[in-house]
Design a protein that fits this description.
A 7-stranded parallel sheet has the order 3-2-4-1-5-6-7, sandwiched between helices. The chain is globular. It is an alpha/beta fold. It contains 14 helices and 7 strands.
Length: about 325
């Protein structure tokens, strides 16, 4: 989007976020993560100021070096004068529900840099390697003037595909010698990659992994005709990181256009509708219906159809 930035009352929280106020952004991030009517109203105000940031999705197996690559990408982007937002999605603690890996601790090199805003989010059981409010958090950082938003997913395997619906470019990080089986990943993560990053490329097996990825890619052509480049990196030393960003930029040039934006938003709106329906649905109704289905006094299809009819009457 190239629309002019919407002026918001500077005294409002949304206005302070749009002006780049760091404290306001932190407060808004907490509101967005909690969800509810307050979060929706805030994002409704801020939405006209979104559409400028490039959203990078960084996913891959645990231990491949996603956090290190994100760290290196942020450092390089800052060197170019870009304001950066980082969303680190961690698995949840089974006790507190909070994020247990603490990517903000692993990214201490950016501490004190007001040009980098880092937010760790717990999945709290949300599927697809993301947290429930990840999409809203990315929009929030976009609205605050961040020119690049880096989203690091949990890294749990084939459920990572949700990031492809959110990110402008998806970078799949792999590493040699970690048991990354390209054939096993092919049915899931392989298809969402716009760029492959073979991290820890100074280790034995990097060339073999590159050949395996290339062979896998040669078996299937993407609908958009894009052949994802394979970039070898040693993120801990900053090697290959610039090449990753260049490859992402080349893909970004191809993917621009209203038709794709409409397709992406159709998927997001579908997901948002599902979330809102579930959010407003009484938990006791689920339990009551579950008891009846478990007792075989009714069937799940009749239950769901009944709910759909009720919602249809409510909308009418």
């Amino acid at each position: 989007m190239d629309a002019a930035r919407t002026e918001l009352p500077s005294a409002s929280l949304a206005g302070r976020v749009a002006s780049g106020d760091e404290r306001a952004l932190a407060r808004a991030a907490t509101i967005v993560e909690r969800g509810g009517a307050g979060a929706r109203e805030l994002m409704r105000e801020l939405f006209p100021n979104t559409g400028r940031a490039v959203v990078y999705g960084i996913t891959g197996a645990p231990g491949a070096g996603k956090s290190t690559l994100v760290n290196a990408m942020a450092r390089l982007l800052r060197g170019r004068g870009k304001r950066v937002g980082i969303i680190a999605v961690d698995p949840s603690s089974p006790f507190s529900g909070g994020a247990i890996l603490g990517d903000r601790i692993r990214m201490q090199s950016h501490h004190g840099d007001e040009g980098v805003f880092i937010r760790s989010m717990a999945t709290r059981g949300w599927m697809g390697g993301l947290a429930r409010a990840t999409a809203e958090m990315a929009l929030l950082m976009d609205a605050s003037g961040r020119e690049a938003v880096l989203i690091e997913t949990v890294g749990v395997g084939q459920d990572e595909v949700e990031i492809a619906r959110l990110a402008d470019v998806t970078i799949v990080v792999m590493a040699p010698g970690m048991g990354d089986d390209v054939q096993a990943m092919k049915a899931g993560v392989m298809e969402i990659a716009d760029v492959f990053a073979i991290n820890k490329a100074d280790l034995e097996g990097a060339e073999k992994l590159e050949r395996e990825i290339g062979a896998s890619l040669s078996l299937a052509m993407r609908e958009d005709g894009w052949l994802p480049p394979v970039v070898k990196t040693v993120a801990s030393q900053g090697q290959g990181v610039e090449e990753v960003l260049e490859a992402a930029a080349r893909y970004g040039e191809r993917r621009q256009g209203r038709e794709r934006a409409e397709r992406v938003w159709a998927e997001r709106l579908r997901a948002m509708l599902g979330e809102r329906v579930l959010e407003g649905f009484p938990a006791e109704e689920f339990r009551r219906a579950a008891a009846e289905v478990a007792a075989r006094s009714t069937d799940p299809y009749t239950v769901v159809e009944g709910w759909m009819k009720e919602m249809g009457r409510g909308r009418a």
